[in-house]
Amino acid sequence: MNKIDGVSIEDLAQEFGSPLFAASARAIINNCHSFRTAFSAAYPRVEVAYSYKVNSVPALLGIIHGECAWAEAASGFEYDLARRMGVPGSSIVLNGPYKKMEELRKAVKEGALINADHMEEIDLLEEIAREEGGPIDIGIRVSMETGIDQMPDRFGFNIESGEAARAVERAAKNKLIRIAGLHVHLTSYIVEPHGEGGMPAKHVRLIWPKDPGAYRKAAAEVMRFSIAMRERFGVVMKYIDMGGGFPTVGSISPYVEAVTGPILAGFGKDDQPLLILEPGRAIVSDTVHLITTVVAVKELRAGVRAVVVDSGINILPTSFWKFQDIECAEERGGGLREATVYGPLDDLLSG
Ligand SMILES: Cc1ncc(COP(=O)(O)O)c(C=O)c1O
After folding, report:
1. Ligand 1 centroid from CA 232, angstroms
2. Cα 261 to Cα 259: distance, rounded to the nearest angstrom
3. Which of 257, 284, 311 is the last residue of a domain?
4. Do residues 224 and 196 both lie within one domain?
5. Residue 18 in 3-state DSSP?
6. What is the pLDDT of residues 117-165, one digit of tens each?
7. Is residue 72 domain-shared with residue 6, that is, in the same domain?
8. What's the CATH number where 188 sits?
9. 0.70 surpassed by pTM
10. pLDDT, tens digit, for every residue of 298-314?
11. Which residues contact 201 (CB under 8 A, 6 or more apart)?
């Protein structure tokens, strides 16, 4: 690979210096467009809320919002950034396990879709409803068994334990908030112990994406729960948010079917909820490149080579445990050999 969006990597390094992060606007636009159209072709009402936590560089957000209009914020900082990017409150999904009172007040005033994580947050939202003098619509985050064998899913209200139904029942009884949506995010990737010896990346198996079957189970469970809540409390879900965790767009179709199949089957044509998706990695993971320059090559011992580059692990900390694809921007000849790549810890604050 020697060009990004038709611009020579050599020229970029000359102009802006090395090391340098460079993103492909074309790839971002293509990913957003393909992701949105894949889901829209299968389901009539879809909104794509890009997950700010995954990469919130404003220049990239500007490109993303050309295609994916909504934003998913997990903090007050991300919410304010989305507003500064021109996203109206009514197109922001506010998630996260801790939302401060003043952040909730602002989000309610601006019509954001707030997904509550726990009963204490419902206390705060009821207080805001009292201040406002009327009921407010919110969503709740729900968790359920989907066969993903990692840590217990700690976010939101658990369906199997009855906690999610208790939240809906409380809202129906108190009439200060109305549960208008359900949110589920099946975590982004799963890690499991693997192999032995060598560097940390050799000890970790990173599973991404998860099997589409987990999405099918989650969508079916959310559906079943929605129908049960309508029958028990007369609560009608206006939106179902299936979160993120999706693969790059080339492999998206089984996930589209897994998510939309159960929802289409469970709702009639006239009461289909809005389907919200919150991709992060699917939009940006294959679009951003670290350009770095080889400054030295040495033999550590027979057959073991090291390559010194001008960037350190502190600007790409995940490479400690996640293998990164490394490509030469310039063909220099010679055979391929495994090598250890390392460099100086860079000063992140200057420049
Ligand atoms: C609630 C929520 N939505 C969406 C995402 C984006 O996930 P991904 O980058 O795997 O699509 C995350 C990431 O952690 C998240 O926590």
Report:
1. 31
2. 6
3. 284
4. yes
5. coil
6. 999 999 999 999 999 998 999 999 999 998 877 766 788 999 999 999 9
7. no
8. 3.20.20.10
9. yes
10. 999 888 899 999 999 99
11. 319, 320, 321, 322, 323
